[in-house]
Write a structure and sequence with these properties.
Elements (H helix, E strand, L loop, with lengths): L4 E5 L9 H10 L6 E5 L5 H7 L5 E5 L16 H7 L3 E4 L2 H6 L4 H13 L3 E6 L3 H6 L2 H12 L9 E5 L13 H18 L7 E5 L4 H8 L6 E4 L6 H13 L1
Parallel strand pairs: 1-2, 1-8, 2-3, 3-4, 4-5, 5-6, 6-7, 7-8
Helix pairs in contact: 1-10, 5-7, 7-8, 9-10
Bound molecules: phosphoenolpyruvate.
């Protein structure tokens, strides 16, 4: 059974006041039948972990350094995230790839650091609009899959998130056929490389909302979603969780 996961990425949004949204989420989904994950800014991880302590909601980081400690001003290690109460970490989000020039090799090293700290890595891949229009989507994804996922990945320590860059925060969503094509392709690559490749969860991410979640979750090989904007408010994220529970 692949894990179904509704994951929220708060990005650089949230002060302690916004933890009220997490409280509201745990009240609405006290015993969700799917995995629920919120990745708040690092400053809120410890408080967020306390907020969800008695509930079935996991907390994750949005990035980690590949090293465990050292002279890396402003960075945070996977060990630190784990010590603060995180059990997941996003690696290779397109905003990290773009804003910080992260390479596939760096993302693989960060993901390995996540495994070493007993965190599950949510490894993100996705094509730009230009690559989609050029017809190179699957080639681009192949390169990212080969380079960003460590050989030590398993279905237990890794979740893949397919996030077309042009769909993130834009309100644009690929057609269901496009999502199906990519997810089937990712599955093929995972099963070819890993003995438990058929068990990896593969999320779709990019402008998922309560209004489109059920249709996306009905696509074969879509095991959940990585959600940005619609994860900030419990009232917006809740219908996405419910759609996944009903999928
Ligand atoms: C994301 O940041 O990973 C994301 C998918 O954002 P949004 O849901 O806002 O498009």
């Amino acid at each position: 059974m692949r894990r179904k996961l509704a994951a929220g990425n708060w990005k650089m949004n949230g002060t302690p006041a916004e933890l009220a949204e997490l409280t509201a989420l745990t009240q609405t989904h006290d015993t969700p039948t799917v995995n629920v994950l919120i990745c708040p800014p690092s400053t809120l991880i410890a408080q967020a972990a306390n907020t969800v302590a008695d509930h079935k909601v996991a907390i994750g980081g949005q990035d980690c350094h590949a090293n465990t400690k050292g002279a890396h001003t402003g960075d945070i290690s996977a060990d630190m995230l784990a010590a603060a109460g995180a059990t997941y970490v996003i690696t290779g989000h397109s905003e990290r790839r773009t804003d910080h020039g992260e390479t596939d090799a760096q993302i693989a090293a960060k993901s390995q650091a996540a495994y070493d700290a007993k965190l599950t890595a949510v490894i993100c891949i996705g094509e730009t609009l230009g690559e989609r229009e050029d017809g190179t989507t699957l080639t681009v994804l192949d390169t990212q899959l080969a380079g960003s996922i460590p050989d030590t990945a398993t279905a237990a320590n890794t979740v893949i998130a397919y996030e077309p860059v042009w769909a993130i925060g834009t309100g644009k969503v690929p057609t269901l056929d496009q999502i199906a094509e990519v997810h089937a392709h990712i599955r093929t690559r995972l099963t070819a490389r890993f003995s438990d490749g058929d068990q990896f969860s593969v999320l779709y991410g990019g402008s998922v909302k309560g209004s489109n979640a059920a249709d996306i979750f009905a696509v074969p090989d879509v095991d959940g979603a990585l959600v940005g904007g619609a994860s900030l408010k419990a009232a917006d994220f809740s219908p996405i969780i419910t759609a996944l529970e009903n999928a």
